[in-house]
Amino acid sequence: MMQDSNYPARYWHMIEDGRMQCDLCPRDCRLHEGQRGACFVRMRQGEQMILTTYGRSSGFCIDPIEKKPLNHFYPGSSVLSFGTAGCNLACKFCQNWDISKSRDMDRLMDQACAETIAAEAVKYGCKSVAFTYNDPVIFAEYAMDVADACHALGVQTVAVTAGYLHEQPRREFFARMDAANVDLKAFTEDFYVKHTGSHLQPVLDTLVYLKRETHVWFEITTLLIPGQNDSDPEITAMCDWIMQKLGSDVPLHFSAFHPDYKMTDVAPTPGATLVRARDIALKQGLRYVYTGNVHHQEGDTTFCPNCHAALIVRDWYEIRHYKLSEDGHCPDCGTAVAGRFAAKAGNFGRRRIPIAIGVG
Q1: How far is CA 98 from CA 60, 86, 108, in A?
Q2: What gap in Å lies between CA 163 and CA 136, rounded to an integer?
Q3: For position 147, what pLDDT does the model report?
Q4: CA distance to 144, 177, 329, per residue, from 151 (Å)
Q5: Which value, to the nearest 10 degrees, does the dihedral of the CA atoms of residues 27, 170, 236, 229 take?
Q6: Which position among 17, 75, 128, 295 has the lowest Cβ density within 10 Å, counted as fewest Cβ atoms?
Q7: Residue range 128-186, pLDDT digits in tens
Q8: What's the angle, vertex CA 81, arms to CA 75 and CA 87, rounded to 5?
Q9: What is the fold of 57-355?
Q10: Regarding beta strands 156-161 and 179-183, do their DSSP bridges make them parallel or antiparallel, or are they unpaired?
């Protein structure tokens, strides 16, 4: 049976002045009766906090896993993707602002319980379910329930997130995820404060946590915005930090910005900027560096880090050539490629298939 969308939320406590503090993310919103947090979907109702979007989605779609983007997590497989509404960041350059910044709960037309979503993933042959389009951290209770239902049916789970959350919810949330793509939006505190209304360090903490304390496969995406976070020194510093704290095997995606939301006066990212950033990252020692939102076959291809053979050749989200051995090694030199791989690549291709899921 469908859960009420006003679902009791976790991660809060009362403070001395009578307000309720949300403990989900570093915003630490303090709420009077009836107030909502900055994410808009976590609200105080009497002496409890509720999640107003539990069981409600902005839509369901079957995507290629490479679109998340995840290039080392069962390449070529399909993923059942969905999100809700709202966000706990305030990115001026948001590429999904019509969903993440929505204040219209009526936009959430599709309703489904956790078990229904998991069953639909099996029905459509999806290897995984992705919580995406808006940040799943803000609907953590719903995402975790869906993840439990997915795991009961052998379906993997993926979080596409900015990684902006506190220690306890971070631990409980990622305990239910098999893979994640984390947005590292820049590598300066100034950028995070001015352009996202948040802070850099909690995101770095999430990345270190994922590497050191979990078995979650994760990749990183940085949207390069001309004149804002695309300088050689900043990209070099970011890559140095990734090498030192996370290691050379974490895939890094540089993605192209297009003018949107509150940054329509900034030019699109030139393809040459992504190629330059990729070259810097490779020179700093990162093994798997990709370019996104542009057609650049070299930047789509997975190369052996040892002999540099082209092991997975992609055309946008479609795999044109797959050369990995069954256990994820280069067949030419035997070097292991970091990631999660099946015996052979999937063949879902670049399709995007919207689907309707009924009330469960």
Answers
A1: 16, 9, 12
A2: 10
A3: 98
A4: 11, 10, 27
A5: -30
A6: 17
A7: 999 999 999 999 999 999 999 999 999 999 999 999 999 999 999 999 999 999 999 99
A8: 120
A9: TIM Barrel (3.20.20)
A10: parallel
pLDDT digits (tens, 9 = 90+) for 39-73: 999 999 999 999 999 998 888 999 999 999 999 99
Cα gap 182→252, rounded to integer Å: 10
CA dihedral 160, 163, 166, 172 (to 10 degrees): 30
Which segments of the chain belong to CATH 3.20.20.70? 57-355
pLDDT score, position 105: 52
Alpha carbons 38 and 35: distance in angstroms, whole number: 10
How far out from the chain centre does Cα 46 lie? 33
What end-to-end distance do the CA atoms of the chain give, in Å?
Answer: 6
Does this model's pTM top 0.70?
yes
Tokens of 100: 């993440």
Distance CA 7, CA 290 (A): 39
How many residues does the structure list for the chain?
360
Structure tokens at 4: 């009420």
